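The passage that follows is intended for readers who have already worked through the single-chain material. We present the inputs for a multi-component assembly, then the predicted structure in tokenized form, and finally a short commentary. You are encouraged to pause after the input and sketch how you expect the pieces to fit together before reading on.
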Amino acid sequence: MVLFSIAEPGQGSARQVVRRKRAVGIDLGTTNSLVAVAKEGRARVLPDAHGNRLLPSLVRFPEDAVPLVGNEALAADGGTLVSSSKRLLGRGLSDINYPLPYVLQAAEDGGMVQIRTEAGLVSPVQVGAEILKALAGRAGDALGGSIDGVVITVPAYFDEAQRQSTQAAARIAGLNVLRLLSEPTAAAVAYGLDQQLTGTVVIYDLGGGTFDVSLMRLDQGVFTVVATGGNSALGGDDFDRVIADWLLQESGQPCGSKEDYRLLLQQARVAKHQLSTADKARVQVGSWQGSLDRLQLERLIDPLLDQTLLACRRVLRDAGLQVGDISDVVLVGGSTRTPRVRERVKQLFGREPLSSLDPDEVVALGAALQADVLVGNKYGDAALLLDVIPLSLGIETMGGLMERIVPRNSTIPVVRAQEFTTFKDGQTAMSLHVYQGERELVSDCRSLARFDLRGIPPMVAGAARVRVTFQVDADGLLQVQAEELTSGAKNSVVVKPSFGLEETQITAMIRSSMESAALDKAQRSLRERRVEALRHLEALHAALQQDGATLLDEDERGTLERAMRELDAATVGTDARLIETLTEQLNSLSRDFAGRRMDAGIRAALAGQQIDAIGE
Amino acid sequence: MLNYFSLLDMPAAVDLDRALLDLQYREQQLRWHPDRFAAAPAAERQQALQRASLLNEAYLVLKTPLRRAEHLVELLGDGSTQTVRLPIDFLEQQLTARESLESAAGVRDRQAVEALRRTAETAASECWSRLREQIAEHDLRSAQISLQELQFLHKFVEEVERLEERWLDS
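Having made your guess, compare it with the prediction:
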């Protein structure tokens, strides 16, 4: 039995709220990301300065410059454009079995995959941090101050490593994470609070790169996740890929470069969007021209949709429910705009799915509602979200078997402890390997972490009692501790997932992020100096053309022109201080010349007046 | 040892009012869920996390009839873990049932499998009646035996369900 410390009831967090706190909900999506804010139970999406609500989840990493995010990244040239990085979070190189328009590299320690960019190797976590920073900046501008806390949504199917990576990204972005919330839960909050939905609801969430299906019970402000399932590597991006592959096949054109494939994917996406309203879309590959119709699109994406419907049936079965028990089906994610998706979901559940809230925005809205409550801005009866873990957690035992300690769909937070013992006489250490997954053999599950428990006193085999405790918090994050009980020796270890990041790596990224903020500032200052210097040079150049011959002697003119050449050369470089010094030097050198020009100008003006006066 | 019944303010019994249990759990979670402490100091957050984890565990145990009975018998024996010996004829019955299930599964005899399930379920329901009496009479030893028999029968029904699920999938 684990010992818990229990507080006096009522000694909770009763505290006065002085200032209304700024908290936002962030939907960190594969294709698009959004930020929303809530006040008194109503949520709204915060647009950028140009009125765009969606931020494309794109980051461009140029050489020697700060990364660009969203539409800015799309519009710029040069550097490496990173898209769909959410799918790489907490993943190793061997997990990525689909083409990407950029190059990946295995991490040296065999951990999370890295992206080769013109700015050097970048972790998917850093890409996420850039997007989060951009969204927090947008929110800060809109709400007039820094953000006190954020709720970030993750697919319900995200495993330990993926959740940890998301949280690490937020830390690097300097954000205070109030809660990681699963996307379907967030959607349910939006519908439950905003639209007063109650009953047993299926949330069908097909995003750019992930598919989640969750069964939830919505009842008087308590939202309980009953069961969840899905596929963390299936989404609208896959629609684009099958369309692109079909285009290649139909056209018989070769696909030479990564850039070619990127353009092809772009065209596939455009055609897919057109087919949401039109019956036919024109397509072109090289010199080949053709068309894609709805029927063909359905044929291409139906196998992918079959996978999602199979997952829906599995979740129903997990919950011990029939189709008839479902009171509503909610559609979430941009990919549910494809009419075929709606059609197939309707077929399975025998009812028209709900989409009264924008499927692209509903997750961010729900996250914002929850963020507002969590940060301490209370209004009426706040909702309580009871989430579950999507995958079982366990430990490897003799023979490579998975011993499940916390089964999937357990309500979180959860604590479970199990005792293990030694295999050999005199064994003083134990190697513990933590896995996540549903299969019997650990080789079929995902390795999360391994660590050694040392200092076990030598005993006969089977006499030691090692208690392993799994604690999953409300964010779905796991801590594992192990201790040997008979000796009273306590050795506990907190685990980081194998595909996550080491604390030192995160710290290094936070530092580099701060440096890049400093670099950003330096770059802005360099740009300003350059502009100022060039403006100065241009004005002086014009003045010399006009009055140089009459107002300056040979020496004076030579000195001035030398200083101008020096400054001109400096503006090509990156030394802002040098540009500033040379600009000042040129300023003082040309002061005399400017004075003479002014005098001459006044004289000329006076002279003109005299002429005018004579004319009168 | 921890008493999950008193934690959730429920009467300790084999049968309980599920609606009342849901209500009690909900009220406690509304008070202790870590989301209620998101802006609180770390120590309070940690306490809330532990309390909420405990509530989830208690709720899971109490809402699952077999686990609830196990917990009740544990409380009755004050946590002592004696091993009990099951009657030999019960074990023999179980062995025979398992062999029958295996051969029925081999030839995909759905009717035979269903019949085996019904037999196990009838035996379980008789076992439950005995257990209720034994607990009422504080007959710890007999209650432990009934509980173990129930565990056997429960596993058997689970196996049947897994088998039927595999058939459903293929």
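Commentary: Chain B has a mean pLDDT of 89. The interface with chain A takes residues 1-2, 26, 29-31, 33-40, 44, 47-54, 56-57, 59-60, 165 of chain B (CB under 8 Å). How closely did your sketch match?
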